[in-house]
Amino acid sequence: MALKATVCKAILNIADMDRQYYAEHTLTLAQHPSENDERMMVRLVAFALNASDSLEFTRGLSTDDEPEIWEKDLTDEIGLWIELGLPDETRIRKACNRSRQVKVYTYGGRTVPIWWDKIHGKLSRFHNLEVINLPQEATQALCEFAGKSMTLQCTIQEGQVGIGDESRHVMFEPQALCPG
User: Fold this and answer.
1) Rounded mean pLDDT of 100-118?
2) Is 167 a residue whose pLDDT tops 60?
3) b/e 9-39 (16+ beta carbons within 10 angstroms → b)
4) Cα–Cα distance measured from residue 142 to residue 8, given in angstroms and rounded to the nearest whole number
5) Which residues of the chain form beta strands (DSSP E)?
6) Torsion-angle region of residue 60: left (phi > 0), alpha (psi -120 to 50) or beta?
7) pLDDT > 90: percent of the chain
8) How far are the Cα atoms of 42, 77, 104, 133 from residue 115, in angstroms, in the given order?
9) What's the CA gap between 7 and 1, in Å, rounded?
10) Is 180 helix (H, G, I), strand (E, B) or coil?
11) Cα–Cα distance between 44 and 50 in angstroms, integer?
């Protein structure tokens, strides 16, 4: 019998001073059986960094032709395609050809520079691509917040990101590897 996804609920209060975006989002995240807590929390961070009323999670890991998160307009055109981890060149190229803007949020510490050295030359022609690395210490610390029910506050100011609950807080600065 196939394992089912774990349904996690999150209330995410976002104060993004850099974009002048302030909102509370009630989110449902389906955590695939193969998805660890770190990856699920990276999805939440990617959502917070790009939050809008039309941004939404997709079927994610279970689908090859959809990103982790996307934003579509009223004509069903993909305005923003968000990938996580270390996707291969083919997947990134496909994303860049299908949407106006693509963001890849990498994480994983020492594996990121190895992946980036191998792939960046093949991606230089895509002007709608942005690759952002999230520090390993931060993504691992975010695992403390993972649960079936989460209430988190996220503050973004001058490139700094702070995420926390009532008792703990994680601060970090995402690093742009490839500006869009």
Assistant:
1) 95
2) yes
3) ebebebebeeeeeeeebebebbbbeebebbb
4) 15
5) 6-16, 21-31, 55-57, 69-72, 78-84, 99-106, 129-133, 149-157, 160-164, 169-172, 175-178
6) left
7) 84
8) 18, 30, 12, 12
9) 18
10) coil
11) 10
Separation of alpha carbons 134 and 163, rounded Å: 13
Query: Is a pLDDT exceeding 70 seen at residue 81?
Result: yes
The per-residue pLDDT for 65 is: 77
pLDDT attached to residue 51: 97
What domains appear along the chain, each with residue ranges and CATH number?
6-178 (3.10.640.10)
| Residue whose pair of structure tokens reads 């032709």 in the numeric block | 65
Task: Please state the pTM of the whole predicted model.
Answer: 0.94
Q: How far apart are CA 27 and CA 51, in angstroms?
A: 11
42-58 residue pLDDT tens: 999 999 999 999 999 98
- What does the alpha-carbon distance between residue 154 and residue 172 come to, in Å, rounded to a whole number? 11
Give the sign of the dihedral formed by CA 123, CA 84, CA 88, CA 79. Answer: negative
End-to-end CA distance of the chain: 43
Which parts of 51-132 fold into alpha helices (H)?
89-98, 111-123
